[in-house]
Amino acid sequence: MMQNYFAVTVVFFYLASAILIALRLFWRERDTLPSRNLALALGFAGLLLHAWLLFDQIFRGPGLNLAFFNALSLTSWTVATLLLVSSLTKPVENLGIVLLPVAALTLILETLYPGLNFMRQAASWSLKIHVLFSMLAYSLLTLASVQAILLAVQDHHLRTRHPGGFVRALPPLQTMESLLFEMIGAGFALLTLALLSGFAFLENMFAQHLVHKTVLSSIAWLIFGGLLLGRMRYGWRGRTAIIWTLSGFVMLILAYFGSKAVLELILHQGP
What we know:
The structure is a single chain. The protein is mostly helical. The chain is built from 8 helices and 2 strands; from the N terminus they run H-H-E-H-H-E-H-H-H-H. A two-stranded antiparallel ribbon has the order 1-2. Helix 1 (about 1-25) runs antiparallel to helix 4 (about 95-110), helix 5 (about 125-160) runs antiparallel to helix 6 (about 175-200) and helix 7 runs antiparallel to helix 8. The longest helix has about 35 residues, at about 125-160.
């Protein structure tokens, strides 16, 4: 019962933070903006309580309990952490309008539908490193995909000569693009490490329960790598960068959560 109260509190903190960030973005009176520091403080408070709930759900057992909704909640927590920490030095907090409510939703699902799917305690350190790299890569590239959507909205408003409203509150388009490619570059590096560690340390990356994940993750790696190469050689930007980013993100979502959902929720099998 206590966990439910904590979960409700986390949801409140996340939603309150997202609402304050949204108000800052859409508020017309620029001199009376809601406090940015308060918005971030509420987000960090939610992170701390969310971390405690994740520890209780995932680590208190005979191994790591990475059931579907636990893994989804852990990923959303990682995304929110990267977002809020980055917001301390970069103008990326507006992504929280989407990502913080999503983190709240995954926590609700984790609370309502607890599952058991343990990674055994005797799992090798190399497997744990592979899981860590994968989680960080998915999280950073999730941030990049939301940044790409925001960039698409900003680009559309500027092309149609409607730069007012919340678009006026965003950083310049060039800054938004630079942030996007910084996220993609870091995420691509982590995805590379995740794939290399998988091929190096796992017994068979093309085993029946891993083949879809391996193939789709490799396709995502090619998409993001192609985008970075196109950026360096041909100066790709704007709509091209947005389409490639979202395409790679879809491949990653299908690779991990798509295959995991089929295995656990439909076939009732372990990973």
